[in-house]
Amino acid sequence: MRRHILFGLVAVFWAAAFARDSFETWVNTTDLPPLLNATSTEVRDRNGALLRVYTVDNGLWRLGAAPQNVDPKYLEMLVAFEDKRFFAHSGVDPLAMLRATGQALAYGKVVSGGSTLTMQVARLLEDSGTGRWRGKLRQIRVALALEKRLDKDQILTLYLTHAPYGGNLEGIRAATLSWYGKEPTRLTPAQSAFLIALPQSPETRRPDRNFLSARDARNQVLDRLTQAGTLLDDTANAAKSEPVPHQRHPFPAFAPHLSDRATTRNRDARRHDLTIDMPLQKSLERLAAKALRGKEERLSIAILVADHNSGEILASVGSAGFSADGHRNGFVDMTQAIRSPGSTLKPLIYAMGFDQGLVHPQTLIDDKPVKFGTYAPQNFDGQFRGQLRVADALRLSLNIPVVLLTDQIGPARLMSAMKKAGADPVLPSGKAGLAIALGGIGLSLQDLTTLYAMQARGGKAVKLRWRKEDPLTEGERILSRAAAWQVGHIMSEMAPPAGASNMRLAFKTGTSYGHRDAWAVGYDGSHVAAVWIGRPDGTPVPGAFGGDLAAPVLFDVFQRLKPKLAPFGPPPPETLILSTAQLPLPLQRFRGRNAVFQAPPNSLELSFPPNGARLEGVETGLAVKVRHGKFPLTILANGHPLATDVRQRTINLPFTDKGASVLTVIDAAGRSDRVEIWID
């Protein structure tokens, strides 16, 4: 029966050829099928590497492909095997049809097909079979019409995009990514032969289901190409020893959260180019999974890395794994979640204080109990350090000094600075209060990275961007160059977390109220990175601290980012680098207008222990420090003299009483000062 069909097709073709006018009309009036079937949406990194690919609506992996994107040797082998006169015929090859008919008549069965690559494209576009003569005639007509309207490269592009490769794979790129885990730009002869054989019978030759059939079909292609002179014997024999793939590779799915954002923003685009660096992204996704290994099962993690000079986001890890399974809620992009930033805003507050002339890094500031109406901030450990330098207050991340400074700057001004820098802070109560200095505000990881990028680039804002098409957008100056350099210098002198390399990274950690969020943010001369660890549902994580959880990950991020940190520049010429004693008198000591225990300048002061201090380890005596006042001094404990005729500023008192006590110092002029302490 099939012999008669082939004979009939040849007869029809030649009859049509003689009736040229009718033939031309017949071809020109062909109603072609759609040539632009939907292809998979692709998300690519800054260098064009495939980050993620999506299936089309019917669940097919169908990636667009063109001849220039495919190994030339594969194309040579494909044409030699399937349609050796492809570049000469006009859609139908009469010689191939005659050969196929002759073989069918001689052997009593179809030995070789007469279909050209163009006819195969026609069949693929219409999803038509090959067994009926009407279907074959339709393929001939469509093939002839395609050749009139398209060039050979365009026809090859259609084949390379639509050829079936088993299961839900269509097109050469889907095939090589799935079976070999790579793009088709470089293929071995064995791989090329396998990819030529598979579309002929994509289900029966699937190597994951019928390995032997796939191998035999590949070897038959190699043998025929050797006989045709396309391959050398040695090349074909070596190719036969190469294994056929046993199973499919997963399609790339890197930066899944950011990829989803890109496709949601523009659903019609088939390609999205991001600023992401794929090798770094892959490395940090592995780091995120490693960081949570063995940790509490509901923890999640987010990491963001950007070039603060260009504003380009180089890596964005929204969770340890993109999955709705389990307790980590990996489908939630925690780079965008609004969370309490803890202490991570302190560098910005101090820098604003520097700019407003309120303090200098060497200014002395009090760490004593204070109260602003009903708000009485406490340090994280409940201790008080007394008087210390502003730089030390930042390094120790003390709460009271930064709240005193925020009171002078004004919470509204701090909010304005964050918004101008490009962040989008959220106030839980709708009103900015002093608590925002300690994390009483909502920010995303991207917001926080934006703020630190501004500090890293000398106080000038930049909009972080993740799409390659978006231009560099610089904002206004938020901090002076000197203030930005000073906070960076202070943070770069902080000790790295235990076990981390001793790199000079300017970084700050933070822990939100109730141990809900652990943060670490840092930068060098070129890059800024931020890490968040916590539970997506916002519930507390007992014992979680930014310094313990997030900081080690931050240092690992920079080690994976580059072998050596980019140095910070020198201080701007206008930077005031002086000791405390060399500072102008108003900058030597900070005195906030709302400080509860504020004393007149140069008055007698019991500077240590600070008021409200809780002390341990005083079995050998209590160390007391006194500032100013006229000798001799008298020191009392709970109204009873401990030392008289004291003529030094530091003295060790024989006092070890447990519990609450009141220490009082009186100088020769009758002036006094007192503090309340507790000894454990």
UniProtKB/TrEMBL annotation:
GO molecular function annotation: carboxypeptidase activity; penicillin binding; peptidoglycan glycosyltransferase activity
Any GO CC annotation of this UniProt entry: outer membrane-bounded periplasmic space
Domain Glycosyl transferase family as annotated: residue spans: 66-225
SUPFAM superfamilies: beta-lactamase/transpeptidase-like, Lysozyme-like
UniProt signal peptide: 1-19
Keyword Hydrolase in record: yes
EC number(s) reported in the record: 2.4.99.28
One annotated GO biological process: proteolysis
Gene3D superfamilies, A to Z: Biosynthetic peptidoglycan transglycosylase-like, DD-peptidase/beta-lactamase superfamily
Key words, A-Z: Carboxypeptidase, Glycosyltransferase, Hydrolase, Multifunctional enzyme, Protease, Signal, Transferase
Pfam family, one: BiPBP_C
Major enzyme class: transferase
Family matches, as InterPro entries: Beta-lactam/transpept-like, Glyco_trans_51, Glycosyltr_51/Transpeptidase, Lysozyme-like_dom_sf, PBP_1c, PBP_C, PBP_transglycosylase, PCN-bd_Tpept
Chain ranges of the Penicillin-binding C-terminal domain: 598-677
Pathway(s) it belongs to: Cell wall biogenesis; peptidoglycan biosynthesis
Ranges of residues in domain Penicillin-binding protein transpeptidase: 302-552
Catalysed conversion reaction: [GlcNAc-(1->4)-Mur2Ac(oyl-L-Ala-gamma-D-Glu-L-Lys-D-Ala-D-Ala)](n)-di-trans,octa-cis-undecaprenyl diphosphate + beta-D-GlcNAc-(1->4)-Mur2Ac(oyl-L-Ala-gamma-D-Glu-L-Lys-D-Ala-D-Ala)-di-trans,octa-cis-undecaprenyl diphosphate = [GlcNAc-(1->4)-Mur2Ac(oyl-L-Ala-gamma-D-Glu-L-Lys-D-Ala-D-Ala)](n+1)-di-trans,octa-cis-undecaprenyl diphosphate + di-trans,octa-cis-undecaprenyl diphosphate + H(+)
Family assignment from sequence similarity: In the C-terminal section; belongs to the transpeptidase family. In the N-terminal section; belongs to the glycosyltransferase 51 family.
PANTHER family registered for this protein in UniProt: BINDING PROTEIN TRANSPEPTIDASE, PUTATIVE-RELATED, PENICILLIN-BINDING PROTEIN 1C
Protein name: peptidoglycan glycosyltransferase
